[in-house]
């Protein structure tokens, strides 16, 4: 049923070709094969919803992998220089605004916003989960002995990689 309109078009084109043929018996004329027209027509079809879902799934997985890499590095290198490689200017401003302590330079970053509420000792992180929350958004949950900390991170694509563009405590 999907190709019915292509088949009808092929019959129509072959009918036009035979009716308008100016070749005389015994002469040959080069013509475009109907099969080629049908094949070329199918090449212009758009992607199916299933293909789009697969692309979205791959994109979501790539974004999640980016965040896992970011957090693995953050566990080892809880420093502004490290974090700056993974954030946009918008996220940097959020971290600057979230720094509630004295900062001589005015550009200190509240990098703890990625992992815990500032101002208290949480102890060791027992677990961390990263779950998609819609297009380009992920809920990151850190579980500690006596508390849980949630943050939603929004990502954007910059070149071949992603960057964290928004940070919202939950």
Category from helices, strands and their pairing: alpha+beta
Provide the succession of SSEs: HHHHHEEEE
Overall number of strands = 4
Radius of gyration: 29 Å
* Biggest beta sheet summary: 4 strands, antiparallel
Tell me, what's the shape?
globular
State mean pLDDT (0 to 100 scale): 79
Lateral strand order in the biggest sheet = 1-2-3-4
Helix tally equals 5
Percent helix range = 25-40%
Oligomer: single chain
Low-pLDDT stretches: 1-44
Distance between the termini: 50 Å
The percentage of residues in β strands lies in: 15-25%
Would you spell out the secondary-structure blueprint of this structure?
Blueprint: H1 4-19, H2 34-42, H3 49-76, H4 80-84, H5 89-97, E1 125-132, E2 137-144, E3 148-158, E4 161-169
Antiparallel strand pairs: 1-2, 2-3, 3-4
Helix pairs in contact: 1-2
Description:
- The chain has 170 residues and is an alpha+beta fold.
- It is built from five helices and four strands.
- Helix 1 runs antiparallel to helix 2 (34-42).
- The chain starts with a helix and ends with a strand.
Summarize the structure.
This protein has helices spanning 4-19, 34-42, 49-76, 80-84, 89-97, and strands at residues 125-132, 137-144, 148-158, 161-169.
Descriptive labels:
170 residues; four-stranded antiparallel β-sheet; 4 strands; alpha+beta
């Amino acid at each position: 049923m999907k190709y019915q309109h292509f088949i009808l078009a092929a019959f129509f084109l072959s009918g036009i070709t035979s009716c308008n043929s100016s070749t005389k018996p015994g002469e040959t004329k080069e013509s475009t094969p109907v099969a080629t027209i049908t094949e070329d027509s199918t090449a212009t079809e758009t992607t199916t919803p299933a293909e789009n879902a697969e692309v979205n799934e791959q994109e979501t997985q790539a974004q999640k992998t980016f965040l896992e890499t970011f957090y693995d590095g953050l566990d080892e290198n809880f420093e502004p220089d490290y974090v700056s490689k993974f954030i946009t200017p918008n996220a940097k401003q959020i971290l600057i605004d979230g720094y509630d302590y004295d900062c001589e330079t005015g550009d200190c970053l509240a990098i703890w916003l990625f992992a815990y509420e500032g101002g208290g000792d949480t102890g060791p992180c027992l677990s961390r989960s990263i779950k998609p929350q819609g297009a380009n958004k992920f809920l990151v949950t850190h579980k500690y002995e006596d508390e849980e900390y949630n943050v939603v991170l929004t990502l954007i694509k910059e070149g071949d990689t992603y960057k964290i563009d928004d940070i919202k405590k939950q």
